[in-house]
Amino acid sequence: MTTLTHTPPATDAEYELLAARFRPLFARIAEGSSRREQEHELPREEIRALIDAGFGALRVPVSAGGSGASLPQLFRLLTELAAADSNIPQALRAHFAFVEDRLVSTGAQREVWFKRFVDGEIVGNSWTEVGTVTIGDVITKVSPDPDDAGAFRVSGTKYYSTGSIFADWIDTFAQRTDNGVKVIAVVSTHQPGVTHSDDWDGFGQQTTGSGTSTFDQARVDAVNVIDFDTRFKYQTAFYQAVLLAVLAGSITAAERDVAREVRNRTRIFSHGNASSFAADPQILQVIGEVSAAAYAADATVERAARSLQFAYEGAFLGDEVEDERRNDVAELETAKAQVILSALATRATSDVFNALAASGVSTAKNFDRHWRNARTAANHNPWVFKARIIGDHSVNGAVPPRVWSIGAAPGAAPAKA
């Protein structure tokens, strides 16, 4: 069989050199992805191998020991990684967001964090409250340590703590008790006051290390209690773009696995069109349509990543009006991408089964994981609200919101999202 590989234009040469460092790791990750999901084996070794190879420091400037990757380069790599195992880029979602926040920050701690990233330290996530909490409220609290002027203590419980089980630090949304300010407390996981449970019960994205994080008077250095209002402005667009990469990679993975199944299949149907499935034009059409969907998904992620790069560069212009405009554009473009990819990915990872017979739904083959993973990723930050926001902008020129929260409606019993 002859396989045509993509020949990148000259402008992609830098990316190809960067990607070549990680593709052997991606290939090994892909080999075990189905088994890991079936056995619910967290990809600890795979994530550690990526981090040891410098994956976690992709965005760190070359002068600080990182790769200095652009955001389009980062998201192309995340899409390739998602095609190998869509759980892993989502598990690293909070890490790359915190790296991004440190990139646009100022002060001595910026370089401290760069060194930590280069040394292989990972950051996880704990933002969503558990329990009776009204939307907009924060019940995880940060209090000054009465015995240590240079420290605070964090107490609270969080759900959807994606990637935290792999992390050295947890990016925790909380509220100070002394002044009421909402903050990010970056808490070290290497202490008895932090526990994490792998209790995410979704039918997809099962090995992202999501679940419940509990903080019981956990210590956090004062320098790591960061005013939330200083957070990088394109953060929600960035978080969404990681999920876009997950969706795009899921389509590619479905195409890869089912194309191999069709190629190797020996049984045919009497009312088919050829002496093999691999030569049947109707079966080939199905695979071709899924492949085209993967192409469109990749292009969509790349377009969204360019808008993020535009927003990142806006942080250094010294022009507040232009900076805000660029961040609004990034929010709007990632919202558009989410609306289209949520439908495209779930449809493509379902339609791929049209190229299979009954044996294709075998649990041993586990092809359904691609649909389950895409469907799960698409359920984050419901796209229907994004579609309405996009329409409001188109009709009324409304600026899209860049920060939102989740919680119980006033007077209602709380339930998980």
UniProtKB/TrEMBL annotation:
Q: What is the name listed in the Swiss-Prot or TrEMBL entry for this protein?
A: Acyl-CoA dehydrogenase family protein
Q: Per the record's keyword annotation, is Oxidoreductase included, yes or no?
A: yes
UniProt keyword terms in alphabetical order: Oxidoreductase
Top-level taxon of origin: Bacteria
InterPro entries according to UniProt:
Acyl-CoA_DH_C (IPR013107), Acyl-CoA_Oxase/DH_mid-dom_sf (IPR046373), AcylCo_DH-like_C (IPR036250), AcylCoA_DH/ox_N (IPR013786), AcylCoA_DH/ox_N_sf (IPR037069), AcylCoA_DH/oxidase_NM_dom_sf (IPR009100)
TM ranges = none
PANTHER family of this UniProt entry?
A: ACYL-COA DEHYDROGENASE (PTHR43884), ISOVALERYL-COA DEHYDROGENASE, MITOCHONDRIAL-RELATED (PTHR43884:SF12)
Key word Manganese present? no
Enumerate the spans annotated as Acyl-CoA dehydrogenase C-terminal domain: 254-381
The record's listing under SUPFAM superfamilies reads:
Acyl-CoA dehydrogenase C-terminal domain-like, Acyl-CoA dehydrogenase NM domain-like
Domain spans labelled Acyl-CoA dehydrogenase/oxidase N-terminal: 28-121
